[in-house]
Specification:
globular; D-Maltodextrin-Binding Protein, domain 2; two-stranded antiparallel ribbon; 8-stranded mixed β-sheet
Length: about 425
């Protein structure tokens, strides 16, 4: 080696040491594909655009199934020492992720006025599940509320106003009866997959929350909550507008598209898929109320894992900022039906033009004024599983609503006792 080439080699090595970013940063992001359209292609497109603008950052997106699958697989990867710097997981996973010391608060990642403004730019209702004890642990991305989809053609055939969905429980029952025939049901509310989510919506509408905001208290056996489950069961047993037993979450959208039900309650994340596939005139409305209107928020938040380098955390924050920026959020909302997560997203020309031509895309956002945080506690998965089982056992007639919810409350109290 000549003296000049030796000097060049030493200089190159020194440059690599003082400027490691030149070698690039690689991120592994776990992502749930749970409902609606070709989400994989949409996410891949956003990631590709980010990589074009940030050539020093490589993003490996791992599509892990539903939200529970994503949590299990990403945490298993961390346990096995495999790379994972960020994930979109249930907004309701925050308590458990904090308890296991797996994630870092965004307050520790943002730096400066501009990033502080970004962190405060999201809809407050969508931040409720991610803000715990004064810190922000999750940032909203794939977010939703439950909305009511209805077949306007069936409304017309039943002599109902196709532009007026039920606004109260009383109207839900009366209109559901007018819409029920031998060929189809008037209403379907899913009771598998995420029954607690639908139940929380009904309980809110009946004037009662099912949990406190401190993660340690549930109200499953409250009289209003028991009454809520009895009402849900009455929709099939007494009023005959819903199928008896359980209604499948995963096949309900197709049942609606095939004309097996005139109305369904489902995530706004299904909106684009319904829009693209419905062969009939359909509408979207806020959920009806009894004591009040209401829906829980739903969906996934971004989390940054603690076990990553400072460079990886910085790169993860850049990716999250990019994916939640107004233009990206607008395009994401149009492609999927999920909400734009900030008011600024709805001020983009892209989303303003889209919603002007397709007003149903505004329903989930407008419902945020009546929304509450999705059900979440410490030991969330186990507490939620107990509630899910109670709901299903009552709907199938295995137990009374009072018995089922009383048992779920007792189990929740045992699980949460240590956290009080």
């Amino acid at each position: 080696m000549t003296r000049m080439s030796a000097v060049a080699a030493i200089f190159a090595a020194a440059t690599a040491l003082v400027n490691p970013a030149a070698a690039g940063t690689e991120l592994t992001m776990y992502y749930p594909i749970a409902v609606g359209g070709k989400l994989t292609e949409v996410v891949d497109g956003i990631v590709a655009k980010f990589e074009d603008q940030n050539p020093d950052i490589k993003v490996n997106a791992i599509y892990a199934g539903n939200y529970d699958d994503t949590r299990i697989k990403s945490l298993a990867a961390l346990e096995a020492g495999e790379p994972a710097q960020l994930a979109v997981m249930f907004s309701i996973d925050a308590y458990d992720l904090i308890e296991q010391d797996l994630v870092v608060p965004f307050d520790d990642l943002v730096d400066g006025t501009e990033e502080d403004a970004w962190l405060n730019s999201f809809y407050p209702a969508l931040m409720a599940n991610g803000k715990i004890e004064g810190k922000t642990w999750g940032v909203p991305f794939q977010r939703s509320t439950i909305v009511a989809y209805y077949n306007k053609d069936m409304f017309r055939a039943a002599g109902l106003d196709p532009d007026k969905a039920p606004a109260t429980w009383e109207e839900l029952v009366s209109m559901g009866k007018a819409l029920t025939s031998q060929e189809h049901h008037g209403l379907m509310i899913p009771s598998t997959g995420y029954p607690y989510w639908m139940f929380q919506a009904l309980a809110i509408q009946n004037g009662k929350e099912v949990m406190s905001d401190d993660g340690v208290t549930t109200y499953f056996d409250d009289a209003a909550v028991v009454d809520t489950l009895e009402f849900w069961k009455s929709l099939s047993q007494e009023h005959g507008i819903m199928p008896e037993g359980t209604v499948e979450w995963g096949t309900l959208r197709q049942a609606f598209l095939e004309g097996k039900t005139a109305m369904m309650w489902h995530s706004t994340g299904n909106l684009t898929a319904v829009k693209n596939n419905a062969e009939f005139d359909f509408g979207v409305a806020k959920l009806p109320g009894n004591v009040r209107l209401g829906s829980p928020t739903g969906g996934g938040n971004f989390y940054v894992f603690k076990n990553s380098t400072a460079e990886e955390k910085d790169a993860a924050l850049e990716l999250i900022k990019f994916m939640t920026a107004p233009e990206q959020a607008a395009e994401w909302s149009i492609a999927t039906g999920y909400m734009g997560v900030s008011p600024a997203a709805y001020e983009t020309e892209t989303l303003k033009a889209y919603t002007a031509g397709f007003p149903p895309a505004l329903v989930a956002r407008d419902q945020l004024q009546h929304a509450v945080a999705e059900f979440s506690t410490f030991e969330t998965a186990r507490v939620r599983d107990g509630l899910n089982a109670a709901i299903q056992s009552a709907l199938t007639g295995e137990k009374t609503a009072e018995q089922a919810l009383g048992e779920a409350q007792a189990a929740a109290e045992r699980l949460l006792r240590a956290y009080k």
